[in-house]
């Protein structure tokens, strides 16, 4: 497996986990967050699907997602749901930053930068919702 394929595979696994986690987030988020949760879920699904397409185009085999993913802490009301969203966006930012760092082509690097930028924006939105200040970090996706 090439470096690019491995980087994309790692990002795909992060996106699989994100899509699953947003289902949990949707179940417990405040009702007024329904629109943002739906928008961010759709964004992760689109990024997941594009990553699957890129892996297939590169001739890599694409694993199926796990049947379930365990949240890193209990989620049973809106605050933990928002904190899970922060974790999801942080984790996907790390995965996409890794794509940027490991990419061997300009096109893949651009894909990674676009995905990282999207994650950083969603992360800032959730941080703001939780009242974290500042809501952004200088270098998103740093492990």
TrEMBL record:
Protein name: Ferritin-like domain-containing protein
InterPro entries: DUF4439, Ferritin-like, Ferritin-like_SF
CDD domains referenced in this protein's UniProt entry, alphabetically: Ferritin_like
Lineage of origin: Bacteria, Bacillati, Actinomycetota, Actinomycetes, Mycobacteriales
Pfam families associated with the record: DUF4439
Native organism: Nocardia veterana
Domain DUF4439: 7-142
């Amino acid at each position: 497996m090439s470096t690019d394929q491995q980087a994309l595979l790692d990002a795909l696994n992060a996106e699989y986990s994100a899509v699953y986690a947003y289902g949990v987030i949707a179940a417990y988020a405040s009702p007024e967050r329904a629109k943002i949760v739906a928008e961010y879920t759709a964004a992760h699904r689109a990024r997941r699907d594009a990553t699957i397409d890129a892996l297939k185009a590169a001739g890599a085999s694409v694993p199926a997602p796990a049947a379930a993913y365990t949240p890193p802490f209990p989620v049973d009301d809106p605050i933990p749901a928002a904190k899970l969203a922060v974790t999801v966006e942080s984790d996907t930012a790390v995965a996409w930053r890794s794509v940027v760092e490991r990419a061997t082509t300009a096109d893949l690097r651009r894909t990674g930068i676009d995905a990282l930028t999207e994650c950083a924006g969603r992360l800032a939105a959730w941080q703001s919702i939780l009242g974290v200040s500042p809501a952004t970090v200088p270098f998103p996706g740093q492990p």
